[in-house]
């Protein structure tokens, strides 16, 4: 039995869960998310808990058991607390300007500014010109948007300039050796 899959998922207060067939819909103060359950996995509500079960020990069902439980749990956390990723911009002249809560203008050493639009449900905060906070209820979308912003100018190994996750370690290389 999957250690992750067999654990029940508590339903936080203020969160509504509706299960109909293969669809699981979760609605809370931060937004609403839905998921189509893969394979033969079943999801049922038992009081204030959600249980994810598999019919047998086939390889595919074992793989989907823990995955489905994690996805449903991330939905619960997302609609009640939300997810956030923090990015840091390093480099002389590199900065970010917020255009409302749904767009960013990045100055990353190119001859033009890079504009980034937020998908539905995602918001940006810029507490400093060199820090970006991406937040939203869907963990996968928050991570993808943060990765897309980082991909505009990945940290380079010689000076460490670029966009990196907060706390990310960039392996530095030595430059040319002088004779």
Descriptive overview:
The chain is of the alpha+beta class and 179 residues long. It folds into 2 domains: 9-81, Ribosomal protein L6 (Outer Surface Protein A, domain 3); 83-165, Ribosomal protein L6 (Outer Surface Protein A, domain 3), CATH 3.90.930. The chain is 20% helix and 37% strand. The strands form 4 sheets. The protein has a 4-stranded antiparallel beta sheet with strand order 11-12-7-13. Strand 11 (123-128) and strand 12 (131-136) form a beta hairpin. The longest helix has 22 residues, at 59-80.
Query: Cα distance, first to last residue?
Result: 63 Å
The rough form would be described as elongated
- Secondary-structure element order, N to C: EEEEEEHEEEEEEHE
Report the mean per-residue pLDDT as an integer.
92
| CATH topology type of the largest domain | Outer Surface Protein A, domain 3
Strand order of the largest sheet: 11-12-7-13
Give the gist of this structure.
The protein is an alpha+beta fold.
Write the topology of this structure.
Layout: E1 9-10, E2 16-20, E3 23-28, E4 31-36, E5 42-46, E6 49-53, H1 59-80, E7 83-90, E8 95-98, E9 103-107, E10 114-117, E11 123-128, E12 131-136, H2 139-151, E13 162-165
Antiparallel strand pairs: 1-6, 2-3, 3-4, 5-6, 7-12, 7-13, 8-9, 9-10, 11-12
GO cellular component, one term: cytosolic large ribosomal subunit
Protein name: Large ribosomal subunit protein uL6 alpha-beta domain-containing protein
Organism: marine metagenome
